[in-house]
Design a protein that fits this description.
327 residues; alpha+beta; Phosphorylase Kinase, domain 1; Transferase(Phosphotransferase), domain 1; five-stranded antiparallel beta sheet; 12 helices; ATP binding; EC 2.7.12.1
């Protein structure tokens, strides 16, 4: 069903329970075994506090050790949001579907945070549809008289979070590097300590990606990443640079101005940064009308200062979600 650095996931038939399950088979490398044992611990915590399986996190059935491979048995879920985007040629979702996915994502994150858990690796690949069933509909927006375009629409919008191998219990403030690059919060790059708010930044990146069909920060390098952030959200406040206790100074001149482009910056990098625009304009390229509620929600989720960023619970109270209740 899938493959990653950790190993692979197989679809299997559980003869005892008489159900189709997914089994994550972890490489027999010590580092991956340790991560798997942490994930099992987190999964048990999530499942014990959610017997009905309604809080939006994948449910563990059991686990076993086979020839030095940790094997974790899960409920079988559908494709990821990334798979769905890819299968639709990276065309954006409608605002109603984005609202539905965004609300469920935040509800799952709020549940994790209430148990003192930080996911630290939220991205479309780690958000799965509960059901693989979909219908094909005509995509009128992209259909011309020469070609009929179709798109896959899931029969159910229900989603669940997966992959808790990087999940950590809150230790007030951590300085290690977490998150897949494109979804990484500024405090992680600046080295000023991260906690629950780093998940909120990742969710905001996912929401923009669902609205546009494109990864917001397509980058592999810290300085370029910070330059992209400044392009979309404006300058990074100097007090946040000082909060890093020296770790972020290398990226700034006099703690104020981002040292970009520097002498190592390539023409491609400069073009990649300059292609980005302010958040409103960026969304406007893909949405006929940018809802002001969506813009104000994202601005508060993308707050540079993690202490002022919305929490998952606060985000769920935002007018953008209040217009509709969960199906």
């Amino acid at each position: 069903m899938g493959e990653g650095t950790f190993g692979r996931v197989l679809e299997c038939w559980d003869q005892e329970a008489e159900e189709v399950v997914a089994i994550k088979i972890v490489r027999s490398d010590e580092k991956y075994r340790e991560a798997a044992m942490i994930e099992i611990d987190v999964l048990h915590t999530l499942t014990e506090n959610d017997r009905s399986g309604s809080r939006g996190c994948v449910q563990i059935r059991r686990w076993f050790d086979y020839r030095n491979h940790i094997c974790i048995v899960f409920e079988r879920l559908g494709p990821s949001l990334y798979d769905l985007l890819r299968d639709n040629d990276y065309r954006p979702f409608s605002i109603d579907i984005v609202r539905d996915f965004g609300r469920q994502l935040l509800e799952s994150v709020a549940y994790m945070h209430s148990l003192n858990l930080i996911h630290t690796d939220l991205k479309p690949e780690n958000v799965l549809l509960v059901s693989p069933d979909y219908v094909k509909v005509v995509d009128w927006k992209n259909t011309s008289k020469h070609s009929l375009q179709t798109r896959r629409v899931p029969k159910s919008n229900m989603i669940k979070l997966i992959d808790f191998g990087s999940t950590t219990y809150d230790r007030e403030c951590s300085l290690s590097i977490v998150s897949t690059r494109h979804y990484r919060a500024p405090e992680v790059i600046l080295g000023s300590g991260w906690s629950f708010p780093c998940d909120i930044w990742s969710v905001a990146c996912i929401i923009v990606e669902l609205c546009s069909g494109e990864v917001l920060f397509q980058t592999h390098e810290n300085l370029e990443h910070l330059a992209m952030m400044e392009r979309v959200f404006g300058p990074i406040p100097s007090y946040l640079v000082r909060r890093s206790k020296g770790k972020a100074y290398k990226y700034f001149r006099h703690e104020r101005t981002l040292n970009w482009p520097d002498r190592h910056t390539t023409r491609e990098s400069i073009r990649a940064v300059e292609r980005l625009s302010e958040l409103r304009d960026l969304l406007g390229k893909h949405l006929e009308k940018v809802p002001s509620a969506l813009l104000s929600l994202l601005e508060r989720m993308f707050c540079y200062d993690p202490l002022n960023r919305l929490t998952a619970r606060e985000a769920l109270q935002h007018p953008f979600f209040q217009e509709f209740s969960r199906h």
